[in-house]
Amino acid sequence: MTVAGTSNTAGAFDALMAHERTTFALGQVAGRLGWDQETMMPRGAADQRSEEMAAMESVLHARRTDPRIADWLEAVDTAALDDTGRAQLRHIRRNFDRARKLPADLAQELARLTSRAQGQWAEARAAEDVASFLPVLARIVALKREEAAALAAGGDPYDALLDDYEPGAKAADLEAMFTALRGPLVALRAACLAQPAPKGLTGLFDEAAQMQLTDKLARAFGYDFSIGRLDKAVHPFSSGSGRDVRITTRTNPVDPFNCFYSTIHEVGHACYEQGIDAAYALTPLGQGVSMGVHESQSRIYENQIGRSRAFTGWLYGQMRAAFGDFGIADEDAFYAAVNRLHNGFIRTEADEVQYNLHVLLRFDLERALIAGDLAVADLEAAWNDRFLADFGFAVDKPSHGCLQDVHWSVGLFGYFPTYSLGNVYAGCLHQAMRAALPGLDAQLAQGDTSGATGWLRETVQRHGGLYTPREVIARASGMAPSEAPLLAYLKDKFSALYAL
Amino acid sequence: MTVAGTSNTAGAFDALMAHERTTFALGQVAGRLGWDQETMMPRGAADQRSEEMAAMESVLHARRTDPRIADWLEAVDTAALDDTGRAQLRHIRRNFDRARKLPADLAQELARLTSRAQGQWAEARAAEDVASFLPVLARIVALKREEAAALAAGGDPYDALLDDYEPGAKAADLEAMFTALRGPLVALRAACLAQPAPKGLTGLFDEAAQMQLTDKLARAFGYDFSIGRLDKAVHPFSSGSGRDVRITTRTNPVDPFNCFYSTIHEVGHACYEQGIDAAYALTPLGQGVSMGVHESQSRIYENQIGRSRAFTGWLYGQMRAAFGDFGIADEDAFYAAVNRLHNGFIRTEADEVQYNLHVLLRFDLERALIAGDLAVADLEAAWNDRFLADFGFAVDKPSHGCLQDVHWSVGLFGYFPTYSLGNVYAGCLHQAMRAALPGLDAQLAQGDTSGATGWLRETVQRHGGLYTPREVIARASGMAPSEAPLLAYLKDKFSALYAL
Questions:
Q1: Which residue among A25, A44, A48 sits closest to B51, beta carbon to beta carbon?
Q2: Nearest neighbour of A243 by CB, restricted to B25, B48, B59
Q3: Do A243 and B28 touch (CB under 8 A)?
Q4: Hey, which residues does A232 pair with through a beta bridge?
Q5: Are the C-beta atoms of residues A72 and A16 closer than 8 Å to each other?
Q6: Strand pairing of A246-249 and A230-232?
Q7: How confident is the model at residue B104 (pLDDT cuts 50, 70, 90)?
Q8: What is the pLDDT averaged over residues A425-446?
Q9: Which residues of A touch B270 (CB under 8 A)?
Q10: Are A330 and A338 in contact (CB under 8 A)?
Q11: Max Cα distance, chain A (Å)
Q12: Annotated catalytic sites of A, by residue?
């Protein structure tokens, strides 16, 4: 890389972009190490791998805090840039500011602590032993509070953490949105569960046949295998940007929906990355703009499209072809089975109605932890009280309660709300997409998602980081983001399903 | 990483080793990208991958030429170090000197040129079109001559290239050794081929069963799957050091020996890396000391052990169990089939007698190219003349001649001789191993290689880069490396097989 002189705008901007390009290429490499770790890495390589990851992180940190970035930023004449250039600059400036605000010692201590804590959390969860994990979690919360204070520079500490996943979002705005969701969702949940439960799946579903059908589903949703691949892993995830975006799934002989819908979900994430304008590859614009927008894509693929009456009709035929008669009489019964509510403890297994209640619980608790209003020692009781209030039955063990999610053990505070924000965004996009595509259900009934995914690619995905998260959703949906379309969609769908 | 002060020996040495450790960890990451490219990477990711690799190379180059290394090296008091520390320093000094001597522009131009040239070579080979590749090769040779001159700094240019793969080796010494090999090998080859040919394999061998047996062979030779894995790839290779050493193989329904013996060969390379003292991991001592010593391990696993009468007796039973009756009557006939000579053009398919003749041809031609004594335009004719002289029949097409190997297209000059040097080293080691392990054949006849591989681990592998290549072979075999044991072994083995 030739570093151009910084005395003129074009030179400074080119030098900045060349620097970023290399940094983003290295970021892709680090991300692929993570993919490898979950899919291919031999068990005994774990210690060496953590040294390799630390080496990559130290290189990336040095590049992200390179003092030349400040010089280049100062030398660039923003007015001389086009919209794309200004958007690049906005990301570069923000990333540089955040990277510089975080003390290197703190970042290293957090990295060390959380890399161990993930294993300690898994052990505590397996042993149903909250107490053994509390000292670790207390240390993580203390460090995250330090991090939040450093990043906030006088502003709201939780917002500073949230900003890492959802640039520009404020907890107060989310709280208002989520408060508007919570009451109606609690009521809708109770109304559905008061009705007779639809028949669910029973029996065993061959795992090889699940993998064949899940591969077909990924293709049906437009996932491009020429720049991706699908492997099995313990947890489903999507990894990578640009021209190498890989996904994973898992199979369970009694629960084929878990395989199919987690695949469709990850395909939504992956199609977002694959769909970004190729001209942005390996630059700040070349990746999904926020976790909330990312989740809007994964959730609209999974739910509004994948769990629609029209699409499940097609999927029913596919499952009959793959598995024979599995005890569900017809498409309507299958649609009810796919969207069936049941009393459950686990967020990741929740249906569309209950999912956000799980997220809102975590959002409130983690804000209290970061604000210092909730002591880690009181977390379990607070969790269990809130769960009882929203769900109407008591948590029976920690793995069904405050130990169920990995997030806090790896330091992810401010991440949970983006799940519900993504659902809210998906609600807005879905409303606009239905208006734009009157023939959508007829396509979905044939297993053809190209109309829907094409609309999402055109209105959301291709832009990458060009607009802010709220801007891209507002431009695509033609409205300021609001929870109203999501609520209306859920009430319509589940009132019909449960004859409310 | 905290950089210690350079004013005292311990601080400078520690800082140097911390720097190296991170560099070697990054080197492992870059190597694994190469593995991924050959085994897992989606086709359409190639362009992005080359940017990722270039980014890693630029990071590695900056670390390897970091001017602080010079300061640290100056501040270290060598006399205060133990043998291990001094050996580390020897490698660090050598690597730094080489990295600094190579102009960055030249390295970048070579990297760009050879990354394209590999594809151009493959196209030329497929089209049997030498002429289309000559301009590319001429440019590569010109740049490698520049590189050689820069590295040699007044010494022999070819030696400077050779030194990259075999530190301390001199072409003049190799030439003497190879000259002593060539005449007897040409004569032994002619004598064997004048005899009736043993029966070879015919029929089809199920590829899934080949993979099962090759997995068993890898385990039998001590390959540790807890820190490695075996995948299919177009070309067999071993990749990585320390606790993550991966191998690949390939299957061909008519040629199971290709799968089995290429696996055993790669297992030899991989066991060398896996067997190095864990205390050396991610340091200059933590990888095989030279390509010649590496090849000594892969070849002794493959040939002196894997193609021995005792071991092939066991393998015959395994193949009967896996494939049923495949038309070879008994262990003796199987041993003859495994070691059968035939007239062939291709180095990688050659038996133990003919293999080195292929290598010696390339060694002489590439030295002439680098010396400027042979023009690229005359390469094909020179190749074909020499082939006719040594093998007694004419090259029929370029893919059977000077276009058969990828090496020169990717700039590997000075690499070929390490194949034959490895065979020479394997001959020395085999002689000493036989003397040390009188019961070896009885073990091998049971498929038990632990005596042999344990001896190699103890005498060679565990030392990593602690000794120079010649030292480690001399210490292990109790003699100055010489071609005599290899020649004696080949004459004995093939005289018996062919009733000479």
A1: A25
A2: B48
A3: no
A4: A249
A5: yes
A6: parallel
A7: confident
A8: 98
A9: none
A10: no
A11: 73
A12: 266
Q: Which residues contact A286 (CB under 8 A, 6 or more apart)?
A: A24, A241, A242, A276, A280, A464, A465
% helix / strand / coil in chain B, to the nearest 5? Answer: 70, 0, 30
> Residue B249 forms beta bridges with which residues?
B232
Q: Which two structure tokens, joined as six digits, stand for B464?
A: 């990593």
Handedness of CA B460, B463, B468, B471 (dihedral sign): negative
Nearest to residue B260, comparing CAs of B325, B207, B310, B200? B207
Burial label, B83 (beta-carbon count in 10 A; 0-12, 13-18, 19+)? exposed
- Radius of gyration for chain B, computed over Cα atoms and rounded to the nearest angstrom: 23
Say if CB A140 and CB A411 are below 8 A apart: yes
Give me the phi and psi of B288, to 5 degrees please: -50, 140
Label residue A439 exposed, middle or buried (CB < 10 Å: 0-12, 13-18, 19+): exposed
Flag if A29 and B242 touch (Cβ within 8 Å). Answer: no
Is B40 in Cβ contact with A52 (below 8 Å)? no
Indicate if B266 belongs to the active site: yes
Q: Is 0.90 surpassed by the pTM of this model?
A: yes
Residue B86: predicted pLDDT: 96
State how far the Cα of B449 lies from the Cα of B328, in Å rounded to an integer. 24
Shortest alpha-carbon distance between residue A56 and chain B (Å): 7
Q: Helix B46-64 crosses helix B83-101 at what angle (to 10 degrees)?
A: 120
In three-state form (DSSP H/G/I as H, E/B as E, the rest C), the secondary structure along chain A is: CCCCCCCCHHHHHHHHHHHHHHHHHHHHHHHHHHHHHHHCCCHHHHHHHHHHHHHHHHHHHHHHCCCHHHHHHHHCCHHHCCHHHHHHHHHHHHHHHHHHHCCHHHHHHHHHHHHHHHHHHHHHHHHCCHHHHHHHHHHHHHHHHHHHHHHHCCCCHHHHHHHHHCCCCCHHHHHHHHHHHHHHHHHHHHHHHHCCCCCCCCCCCCHHHHHHHHHHHHHHCCCCHHHCCEEECCCCCEECCCCCCEEEECCCCCCHHHHHHHHHHHHHHHHHHHHCCHHHCCCCCCCCCCHHHHHHHHHHHHHHHCCCHHHHHHHHHHHHHHHCCCCCCCHHHHHHHHCCCCCCCCHHHCCHHHHHHHHHHHHHHHHHHHHCCCCHHHHHHHHHHHHHHHHCCCCCCHHHCCCCCCHHHHCCCCCHHHHHHHHHHHHHHHHHHHHHCCCHHHHHCCCCCHHHHHHHHHHCHHHCCCCCHHHHHHHHHCCCCCCHHHHHHHHHHHHHHCCC
The verdict on a CB contact (< 8 Å) between A59 and B58 is: no
- Is residue B194 within a helix (H) or strand (E), and if so which, with residue range? helix B171-194
Q: Which amino acid type is present at position A172? A: A
Which pLDDT band holds residue B116 (cuts at 50, 70, 90)? confident
- How many beta-carbon pairs below 8 A join chains A and B? 96
Percent of chain B exceeding pLDDT 70 equals 98
- Distance of alpha carbon B15 from alpha carbon B2, whole angstroms: 8
Give A8's pLDDT tier (boundaries 50, 70, 90): low
pLDDT at res. B115: 80
The answer to whether B260 touches B214, Cβ cutoff 8 Å, is yes
Q: Could you give the CA distance from residue A384 to residue A178 in angstroms, rounded to a whole number?
A: 20
Neighbours of A367 (CB within 10 A): 24
Cα-Cα-Cα-Cα torsion B335, B337, B342, B345, nearest 10 degrees, comes to: -100
Residue with tokens 């290399």: A22
Cα–Cα nearest to A50, from A102, A135, A113, A5 = A113
| Interchain proximity A227–B44, CB inside 8 Å | yes
Indicate the burial class of B496 (C-beta count within 10 angstroms; 0-12, 13-18, 19 or more): exposed
Domains of chain B: 9-160 (no CATH), 171-497 (1.10.1370.30)
Can you tell me the ipTM of this complex? 0.93
